[in-house]
Design brief:
There is one protein chain. This protein has eleven helices and ten strands. With 243 residues, it is α+β, with helices and mostly antiparallel strands. The chain has two domains: 3-89, Arc Repressor Mutant, subunit A; 105-241, no CATH class.
């Protein structure tokens, strides 16, 4: 056991600004250096130094998405370590959650992301498939890996869809199941051919409708009942209330 490494990890987590940054990522989101600087109440330059140290130490991971770099907790082990420290420390101070994405709640609730559903609804649909173990995301890595399981066919049947005969083993240029970082929620929703298929199905059924001149999606009354039944009441409340 390397006691020097243990002491270094403890000193990194023990600095208030770095601790504040780590706690902002406990909900699974990905945040930029600028957003984490606000969370730690430090300048962007100071935040960059803190973040580089935490990435080097294996406390955080960083992903390049276009021109942006997003930081996340490096692993579930880091999250469990922080949870243990929070229990020992007692009631944590109230932290203002970093707000990301658009101010327009209709865009945050449901919108198009190319050809699949994003926003809180997209996130809830992906989480439902993950909970039912129909799909898997490689969330410990760079967020690019997605896989389906042999449970997918039964789950899709409940949505009124049939599994593609070739499904994930098809050798096509486009992945069948792929996580996509959500612009407003900073978690992964479902993309790839499976995400597009679900989106097309929801539009064809009239559960979702496109908004002219906008990426926002409107949830119809029939769609609201369907999503509530498929996703569960708690997940549906998060979609509608943003909690």
């Amino acid at each position: 056991m390397n006691t020097n490494h243990i002491a270094r990890i403890a000193s990194l987590v023990g600095e208030p600004a770095r601790a504040a940054m780590l706690l902002q990522l406990m909900d699974g989101r990905r945040l930029t250096a600028t957003e984490l600087a606000r969370a730690g109440h430090v300048s962007p330059q100071t935040a960059s130094r803190h973040l580089a140290q935490m990435v080097e130490a294996g406390l955080m991971g960083v992903e390049q998405r276009g021109r942006h770099r997003y930081h996340r907790l490096a692993s579930g082990e880091v999250a469990r370590m922080l949870e243990g420290l929070m229990q020992i420390a007692g009631e944590p101070p109230v932290q203002r959650r970093v707000v990301v994405g658009p101010r327009d709640d209709t865009m945050r609730r449901a919108r198009m992301c190319y050809d699949h559903v994003a926003g809180r609804l997209g996130l809830a649909m992906a989480e439902s498939l993950l909970i039912e173990r129909a799909i898997e995301f490689d969330d410990e890595g760079d967020g690019e890996g997605g896989h389906v399981t042999d449970r997918l066919g039964d789950v899709l049947q409940r949505w009124g869809l049939a599994l593609e005969p070739e499904q994930a083993n098809a050798r096509r240029a486009r992945p069948y199941c792929r996580p996509c970082l959500d612009w407003s929620e900073r978690r992964m929703h479902l993309a790839g051919r499976l995400g597009a298929m679900l989106c097309t199905h929801c539009l064809a059924k009239g559960w979702l409708t496109r908004t002219a001149g906008s990426r926002a999606l409107t949830i119809s009354p029939e769609g609201a009942m369907t999503f509530r039944d498929r996703l569960g009441l708690d997940a549906w409340r998060r979609v509608t209330d943003g909690a």
